[in-house]
Amino acid sequence: MRQKGLDHSIGFVMGISYRRMNQLFMTRIKSYDLTPEQWSVLYRIREQDGMIQKDIAEKSGKDKPTTTRILDSLEAKGYVTKKIGKNDRRSYHVHITEAGIQAADQIEPIEYQVLRDVSEVLTDEEYTLMINMLNKLSSHAANLLEQEKE
């Protein structure tokens, strides 16, 4: 039987872990004037330049209003540009700029180092198992959310 209480809540413990890792990453990238949330969106755009906002939001795990706010901020910093879609004038394609590529290239090793530093307490097998379990929980929660909408 699973124990009750916040200390045994997967969501609560994951939330604390996420916030601590996020704070560590934020501290290490502070000089780049980017937040971890902005970084994740910039990273996704660098992966696939020219995506529309909906796809960026989905790949970044963020809702549309949050993604809009982040894209506006990245555009103001000169890291991305937006171009009106040819087929749908209500949507636009987001492109990474040279400055965005440079920032992403400089920050990516910092993120990897944070992950290495935090996960050094896990064996490779534990790390792989944890990633698989978290993906399984995330996928199941997404399915449950879809069922709730029906």
Keywords:
2 strands; globular; mainly alpha; about 150 residues; single chain
Provide structural commentary.
It is a single chain. This protein is mostly helical and 150 residues long. Helices cover 67% and strands 7% of the residues. The protein has a two-stranded antiparallel ribbon. Strand 1 (80-84) and strand 2 form a beta hairpin. The chain is globular, with a radius of gyration of 18 Å. It starts with 9 loop residues before the first helix and ends with a helix. 15% of the residues are buried. The model has no long low-confidence stretch (mean pLDDT 93). Keywords: DNA-binding, Transcription, Transcription regulation. This is Transcriptional regulator. Residues 1-139 form the HTH marR-type domain. GO terms for molecular function: DNA binding; DNA-binding transcription factor activity.
Low-confidence stretches are none
Q: Work out the helicity level.
A: 55-70%
Distance between the termini: 31 Å
Q: Major sheet: size, sense and barrel closure?
A: 2 strands, antiparallel
Let me know the number of strands.
Answer: 2
Whole-angstrom Rg: 18 Å
Within the largest sheet, what's the order of strands? 1-2
Task: Give the helices and strands as they follow along the chain.
Answer: HHHHEEHH
Secondary structural class: mainly alpha
Approximately how much beta-strand content do the residues carry? 5-15%
Shape: globular
Helix tally?
6
Overall mean confidence score, pLDDT: 93
Please identify the oligomeric state.
single chain
